[in-house]
Amino acid sequence: MTQTLNQPPDAEPPRDWKQAARRGFAMRCPHCGEGEMFHAYLKVSEACPKCGEELHHQRADDAPPYVTIFIVGHVVAAMLMVADGHYPELPMWIHMVVWPLVATLMSLWLLPRIKGALIGYQWALRMHGFHPEEREAATMPAQ
Known about the structure:
By secondary structure, this protein is mostly helical. The protein has one domain (17-128). Helices cover 52% and strands 0% of the residues. It has helices at residues 17-25, 63-86, 92-124, 132-139. The longest helix is centred in the C-terminal third of the chain and has 33 residues, at 92-124. It is elongated and about 65 Å long.
């Protein structure tokens, strides 16, 4: 087993964060890529139904909505400006119907995927209880 700098010889091998984020974006388990990550729209399963990897440690909190708003806002604003530049004669009511609908649909589609990617990233970096030593410390009773 090769050892990287600043890593003890008995350390676990690094996880591929790009692959884990891609699997999370697909709303699959970051470990096996097969099991469903969510059992409802945004409710993360306690563990992967295929490989048993525990997922309840995740701490996505407010990051997925912020990232979703950032992406959707930039995409919809750009689309609005392009549409207005190419078709300046469009009535205002069309803009008032189309752009909120596009923003809502994009947000609803992106939000669980971004949350899954963030959870996959946390899993790959062993953050928030995804590291075995943290799990043992969290389950030990206080003395």
